[in-house]
Structures
1.
Amino acid sequence: MLFGKSCRQCVVRDAALCAALTDSQLEPLARCGVQRSLARGETLVRAGDPAPICANIQSGLLKISQISPAGQEMIIGLLWPGDFIGTPFMGDAAPPAQHDIVALTPVSLCQFPQAIMERALADHPMMERQLLRRTFTALGDVRGRISRLARATAQARVAGFLLETAHRQGDDDGETMLIIELPLSRGEIADLLGLTIETVSRQIGKLKHAGVIGLPGGRRIAIHDPDALAEAAEAVI
Amino acid sequence: MLFGKSCRQCVVRDAALCAALTDSQLEPLARCGVQRSLARGETLVRAGDPAPICANIQSGLLKISQISPAGQEMIIGLLWPGDFIGTPFMGDAAPPAQHDIVALTPVSLCQFPQAIMERALADHPMMERQLLRRTFTALGDVRGRISRLARATAQARVAGFLLETAHRQGDDDGETMLIIELPLSRGEIADLLGLTIETVSRQIGKLKHAGVIGLPGGRRIAIHDPDALAEAAEAVI
DNA sequence: CGGAAAGTTGAATGAGCTCAAATGGCGTGG
DNA sequence: CCACGCCATTTGAGCTCATTCAACTTTCCG
């Protein structure tokens, strides 16, 4: 639970929100957190929901997506363990959810009533500080994604996605995994990168034929040559 | 100045950070803010700067940009009056600046030493709350941009950019200007939208020939048919 | 097995890029 | 006041990369 004792075991990349609190501060809050699980495909937040959920992802992967007027799905971004969902603002200050949030894998998270979240942040400035820092980081991440989407070739988009996935599946020391489990289908990768299924498949095929990666089966990807992959990710039209 | 009396006159779209403070709270802080002006083209922040600047934009327009390894400039985003620059984290918690920030027009802003900013936020939770809210808003904005860059046609990118500029140059009631002063060159628009100069020019030409917009001269744009422009902005491949 | 979904591969089309040249605006200097 | 040069913008022609449409193969589960 976010504020409970078990929160300290949360799989979070940066410092957990609750790490700033002492045990005695945690105690009265512990009852309010709700441990929750999502199955693959389950929707956590639907665009337009008046009171967005506040939650901290413990394990699993979710997508933030948007359906265009034409019915085309666009994946705005991914949410990994340690990421925070929702805005801790109440009442008329709370903007309605702008995007759908759907589990791509089985997900466990700890969810909080928004009012409790609001109160806890007001009572514990260190928590608010942590949340602010995390939000700044997210802003930087998203800005980084923009440059990739705006100008990069299909090759660079795919290579960059593989690298980022390897990085986020690695341990906390920044080590990247050399065999990663792709949590997305080709179609979802396409929606994430602004490409088509066929193009994603072709680019992965190219990387495989070049010996940069291997496809050991299933949705696993073996990264044989991280440097070459990084180089491919830099390519710009 | 950000915390001074004159701060209340800041041209800010959302609530100013300091609006949460009483006059007596403002008093001891007022001396620390530095009113600063930038000429067009002047660089406020350079990528890699160890201690990023904290500032609040009062008037003018800046670009957040990144130079790719190939030397190609990519404009990550724009900063309009009311936007906040920098992260209020000190010491080793402060990440180095990731992007360049350059004035596109004459700019006036109020700048603060980072230590003062940090302290003020710690002392005044309402300020931190405002900053958090503003950052969430910025995150939502940037996520919105992603979908445009990932899949939208050149036509939609250009139309969307014109609409957003009209919107941000409008008054606080959400009214959009029908004659806007484009603060960017064709080249800068191209860098912002991930297109080439020629394509931007062609798309603007198309919109003009369709009667949707007019070019009264200079870098002004008259929006004759806002609805048609909005429709063009929706177009997706 | 067998059917459905996911993924791969191929050929043709088209949007946007590149290269190149023409046009227009604007300040400088004669 | 006009000629000139510089820069931004516009316009044109050919090309490239990603998409589209379509067929085929593989994987996943019942």
Note: The two ends of chain B are 46 Å apart (CA to CA).
2.
Amino acid sequence: MSSENLQITLPNGDVLQMEPGSTAGDVAVAIGPGLAKAAIAAVIDGATVSLGEPIRTDAAIRVITAKDPEALPVLRHSAAHVLATAVREIQPGAAIGFGPAIDNGFYYDFDVEVPFTPEDLEVFETKMSEIVAEDQMFKRRRVNKEEARQLFSDDPLKLERLEEFRDDEVITVYENGPFLDLCKGPHVPSTGHLRHVKLLSAAGAYWRGDENRQMLQRIYGTAFQKKEEMEEYLLRLEEAKKRDHRLLAKELDLYSIKEEVGQGLVLWHPKGAIVRHTIEEYLKATLLAHDYELVYTPQIANEELYEISGHLEVFEDNMFPAMDDDGSRFRLKPMNCPHHFMIYSTQTRSYRDLPLRFAELGTCYRYERSGTLHGMLRVRCFTQDDAHIFVRPDQIGEEYDRLLDLTDELLKVFGYEYHIALSTRPDKAIGDPTVYDGATDTLRRVLEARGMDYVVDEGGGAFYGPKIDVNVVDAIGREWQGGTFQLDFLMPERFGLEYIGSDNQPHKAVVIHRTLLGSMERFVGGLIEHYRGAFPTWLAPEQVRLLPVSKQWVESTQSLADELLMAGIRVKVASRDTLGYRIRESETMKIPFMGVVGEREASDDTVAVRKRGAGKKQDVMGRSDFISMILRDIETKSISSPAI
RNA sequence: GCUCUGGUAGCUCAGUGGUAGAGCGCGUCCUUGGUAAGGACGAGGUCGCGGGUUCAAUCCCCGCCCAGAGCUCCA
């Protein structure tokens, strides 16, 4: 064997001569003992592989250590194997499904007779630490299909996957201790690397995500390189639990969902309603200032409308059943667009009229599957901050620019960061691909011109047009679905939405479906979690609570309350129970300002002001100063004070 | 919709094959308070709904309703 050495290019540009048959791990050793020790995996020509992977051709190689972002998924995937090893040790009959790394950890699916309990998870976790302590090597092996069939003869799920391989495809298996898995890898060198692993939950999951197939039992877990990272992640989970809008909303009396009314149907209590009302008023004022026109449309429509739109064909599963009226069939509207199109088509429109922007806080009804309902975030009746913008093709770019301006203006007010995603043409797209792609390029240019960071979801667009999505990032870094600006070439065809051009000929308008906040339900639900229930003053249901030190000072306190009310401030006087009790209650209810009035304050016309979250710290101030301070907070929609 | 878990006072939960408890909240009274829970007494329950087993069911069994976790992340 006298084949030539392999030319290995390292990230710093150095070229290493390696003997044929060398592995990625050998490269790490050749670079230095420190790296060899820290190495977890390697990237060969862009593909992440295990250190045991032989190098076949000249290649660019980068060795991955715990510090590299690629290391975490490798670690977690290996953790999934260790989990499967443990489960198999304890329940040898458990058939194994898939066990990938996922966003925040990993899972492994098992086909077992009896679902796992939390106690099972503890047992598995203990077993896993033993496997980690044994430091079993992850050994990679290439096999052909026939060998693989024999290796996995007891694992029907693996066999099913196996049969999907082409005969010429490379099939690899990974072995650690007693456990063997059909797996493309890569893996860490040995189980000893998995020092911080935790199992989190177990639940059913369909084999291959298909609800027509058998249900497997999925165990979720997570793994980290460092203990502190694990602790931080678990803390974040705790924090998210504390912010759950369903719990906070109960404590703060914002909304409820009653069985007697129906699943997924939100009852807005006075305190929740005032939050929503305040947002809606602000939103409508902002839209009018941005040259939108408000419209109102009914919540039902003749079914024929949805035949024209095509919803009946593609969306019927998500629509409530029809109501019959002497041969006409009516549907609760699942979206507002067809109604808005009908308004557009009441007149012959000129190219000079466009863009036309019809906005409505439109209440829609969708039949969501019961298992997907979730507090205010997924409901069956919701009010959408909806608008349909009718433009000429040459106006698309400018209109998207305006939409991005408006988004920025709104989301800043609520203290949200956001990410932008551009979705491009899918295979199933209708119409002329050059029109679709041309429009997509226009959107891309708008984003580029604004210097915005964005991700591209290739093929993620709807079949009728590309879109830009705005995902908001909340106070603890979670992403929520926010705005979406969807271009539509299809509905103008279906509804004959035209305008007369300067050439005196009719042309098809282009529709932009857009929502900025999404639905009021989801937006307010998200805000509750974002603010942890501590709404900024302009949104707080009760902005000020006034506390007379004793009944003696109720009258003086009430006169201050009257002044606040006159100024348009939401205020309550609380005079029962002890002062300490009332202060505690005000804090619990997350009221932004407390004002205490006793002998001193009553005599010199002041108030002792205590801000939410500020503890004992208080400012004694004149009553008019107090009012103007609160008004300033409301007018500026301040999100920084008082403490959230 | 499917799998699992749960449903007991307005809320959070304990409990038992012999028709039920706590804390908070609520009501009344006492206390008239100076910065995160003053005290006493009291009202409040078809133990989710329907059926079955049993002398007896809130508890055991079956069905249903509702809630929670999960059901995309592909060897």
Note: The first strand of chain A starts at residue 6 and ends at 9.
